[in-house]
Design a protein that fits this description.
With 100 residues, the protein is of the alpha+beta class. The chain has a single domain, classed as RelE-like (YaeB-like fold, 2-Layer Sandwich). Helix content is 29%, strand content 26%. It contains 2 helices and 5 strands. It has helices at residues 7-22, 29-41, and strands at residues 2-5, 52-53, 64-68, 76-82, 86-93. A 5-stranded mixed sheet has the order 1-5-4-3-2. A hairpin with a 7-residue loop joins strand 3 (64-68) and strand 4 (76-82). Helix 1 (7-22) packs across helix 2 (29-41). It is globular. The model has no long low-confidence stretch (mean pLDDT 84).
Length: 100
């Protein structure tokens, strides 16, 4: 399956790096993007669909969320949707960012 990055996902990565800058942390968007893509490449969706179903206003109803952690950091929330041949990433959030 191919990972597609929606405009909202790219924007959320940019906002995440801005937020990290305000709390004196280095940017992490590019590493997070690579980690998310490699996570999905290793999954067999015929056996198990990762994440749990979530509902966020103004986003598709079939949205799912999983947590991914880089090193010792708190896990990042990744909101995505499975289509017939693709995985669409919609948002990436850190737990300490403002809630949705």
């Amino acid at each position: 399956m191919k990972v597609l990055w929606r405009k909202s996902a790219i924007q959320s990565l940019i906002e995440l790096d801005r937020w990290r800058f305000t709390v004196d942390l280095p940017p992490i968007a590019s590493l997070l993007r690579l980690s998310i893509e490699s996570y999905f490449q290793n999954k067999d969706f015929t056996i198990h669909i990762p994440g749990r179903t979530v509902i966020i206003r103004k986003y598709p109803v079939d949205l799912r969320m999983f947590l991914i952690s880089l090193g010792k950091s708190d896990p990042y929330k990744v909101f995505f949707r499975l289509t017939s041949n693709d995985i669409e990433i919609f948002l990436i959030r850190h737990p300490h960012q403002k809630p949705l």
